[in-house]
Amino acid sequence: MLINMFKLTAGDYGDVYGAHPAANGMGNAVTATVNNASSVYYNVAGLGRLSEGDKIFAQIEKEKAEKEAKSISEEDQQPKLESDVAQNKESLWARMKKDSFKYTPFNRSNRTPHELTFQYNLARPQLSTSAPQNQDITKVRDDYAGLGMTINLNSIYDLKRNIKFGLNLLLPGNGDLLTINDVNPTAHRYLQYGISNVKPTIMGGIGVELWKDRLFAGVGFNAIISGQGSILLKDVPISPDTVTPNQQVILQTKPFVNPTFGLAFEYGKFQAGLSFRREIALSVDGLPARAQTTLLGIQLDFDVAMYDHFSPRKMSLGFAYKALDNLLFSIQADKEMWSAFRLSRTKQTYSEKNYFNDIIVLRAGLEYSPKEWLKLRAGFTKRPRPTPVMTGSNNWMDFDKMVGTAGMSIILFPEKALPNQKSPIILDLVAEYQKLTDELVIKNIPTTRNPNYSMGGKVVHFGFAVTMFF
Fold it and tell me: Which domain holds residue 184?
């Protein structure tokens, strides 16, 4: 009789690649600036900010009001023209410093737009290793799709403050919504790429504007499942050959919700954000299996409790500076607490002790808008691996990596881009390259099944999103 369960999921698409192409274009350094449906992933307080739809509608209403206003006389225009000339003569550094600590109220629209986002991401990890392979790594793929939405609660009752509910779903592109399996930690397995990164991410929350134009807070949830069950194996004949028993599996699951919290602050040209997310792990506890032979009534009892689909506890701190009206810089540090990772109870009992390290991920991003309808982005990430040097029998495989991203947004303004268009549409694109540092793993006691080996690789990722406001 053989029970073979060999797949582990650790990490998630949002951590490995990004939860939105616009954020990924800035190296995911958006804890201080995010304001769309992906706020529930990066910083739920971002839901309390004005969205891009709010800003576009406010701009349209302002332009309309200016057109309807009476024309300014020649005498009134002259001082303004002189002021513009003086401003153009200022150096770039003087313009960047100007009004850095000056409070400026946000322009607000009379509308309360809601947001709907669709995205698709295509990633192709190109992995290499000299280790014995128990999976085909020549066609590894990490495709995933996403759905995001925000509901502006001021459309129900005007609270005189921005308040939104948001939801963000990231779903595997291969159609497998959830695979629950245990894994042998001695097998050579990539920790966060390919089939080892298949699980849905379901996040939601509410963001509130506490101090108008300045302070925002949010609370949200990250959902997965927990449960218990049993496996009954019967009619197991004693045989030197592998046999397949009659079996029945009963598994009861229920949602398990972890909280997320966020704060964001904005004043003058400065922005800051703080986000906290609990670790996430699917738990199937107390899953006993009983096998009964047809001879001598022998009963065999197993305990195959599982602990899977792990994402680390994460704390993010970010700062941003809007040097010019069309130029934004952002930096961020994420602490990922992988030390809470656990194996299932059977693996803890019968496998070599296993541990992961907490890591600090550094990120930086840049956004430049040469036109009102175009935004260009670039980002950089430096991420150390959470896996320690594994000289024994365990073989989790992960990498130190350097990540570069480039992205753009195209804004389709209503009544300007498409005929009969009533609301703005934003198209986001991102291209990402991950360099996975080459490494040589030296074992204490190398064997044919557990030899010394090398590993390395790279990842190319493209993402696309469409965001609509209504």
Answer: 13-65+93-218+260-274+311-469
